Amino acid sequence: MLAVASLKGAPGVSTAALALTAGWPPADGRRPLLVEADPSGGDLLVWRGLDPAVGLVSWTMAARTGQRAGAVEHAQRLAEGVWVVPAPVDGAETRAALGVLARSGALHGRAGGQRPVVLDVGRLTPGAGEGVLPPGVDVLAVLVEPSEAELARLTAAATAWTVPAEVGVLLAGESAWPAEQVAAAVGLPVWGALPVDARGAAAIATGGRGAGRSRLGRATAGLAGDLARLLARHRPARPAPAALALAGPAVPALPPAVVGPSTAGAGGWTPDTRLATAVPPRQLPPAAPVPALPAVLPPGEAGGPGWIGPSGPPDTVMPAGLVPAGLLLPPAEDPAAGPAADDGTGGWRRPG
After folding, report:
1. CA–CA separation, 166 vs 155, rounded Å?
2. Is 3.40.50.300 the CATH classification of the domain at 2-232?
3. Residue ranges of domains in the chain
4. Which of 93, 116, 166, 349 is the right S-S partner for 88, CB 3.0 to 4.6 Å?
5. pLDDT tens per residue across span 169-204
6. Helix (H) or strand (E) holding 16
7. What span, in angstroms and rounded, lies between the C-alpha atoms of 89 and 98?
8. Beta bridge partners of residue 5, listed in sequence order
9. If DSSP codes are grouped into helix, strand and coil, which group holds residue 297?
């Protein structure tokens, strides 16, 4: 929430607040919300001919009855697209409404929902900053004329303020001193300067043509971008969406032997076992034991090359490449050697 204020005189706080809101860069397509919170009364009802029943008064009635007390529901849209919550012209009525909103907690930093809020708080009195500003103000921009008397007044007031916000200076007009020298003198940063532009100020207040192209309109548009970035540092980040709770049993953690430190997910995440489980190498069945060949040639006659008959001397040593005929099944075909053939004696041999 950004509050725009002054110390004395009429340097143009209401015009500056309206121009800043109009020139504010939209965040996520949402323009900021301007709320008139000047205890001396508002100006927008007269400047723009708005409905007096919608604004700070209706917001106060909703807060009293315990209804939803968001500022957006009580805003009116201006022709240039700015949404405003106008205050009554009468100061006493405005102060009563602000008191109700403050006590109910409706006027706070998130009163605009997802929209940034720009507050026109009017004139501040020295030593009363904490009581005048509503809770939730993150940034306070003090508009001051760059004269020696006003800068001295600002220096004295800044030492007495107990404002829980980041405070900076907006110079209303050209300064005879550099911004760095003014900042060092008052002890506050100078965020920018607005030119004295009576024609541009009138166009901004009444919604006239060329308001944005005026000197004041261009200056406030550039300054609004800087203030938007400054305010963004104070706005809390949106919470991350909660993780979806999936029905069903929890997925068990994978054993360390399957998923190592480089494979397992970070932050307690456990991969799906159907995808992350390593596929074990294919295990072939153990081979059947090969029977030992006899050390001697069975009795029998040699039927030809590569074949041994059923009888023969018991001590005949089996030559290399010969096997007992009774222990063999037909051999598998060898494409290079040709099919095996039955020789008619109960044994098998290969041709050639």
Report:
1. 16
2. yes
3. 2-232
4. 93
5. 999 999 999 999 999 999 999 999 999 999 999 999
6. helix 13-23
7. 13
8. 122, 142
9. coil
